[in-house]
Amino acid sequence: MKRLPLNALLACAVLFGGGAAVAQDRGPTERQSLLDLAFTLGESHALRQVCEGGGDQYWRSRMVRLTEVEKADQAFDAQLRERFNTGFAARQGQFPQCDEASREAEQQVARKGQALAAKLSKSMVTRASPDQAAPDSVAEN
Question: How many helices (H) and strands (E) does the chain have?
Answer without folding.
Answer: 5, 0
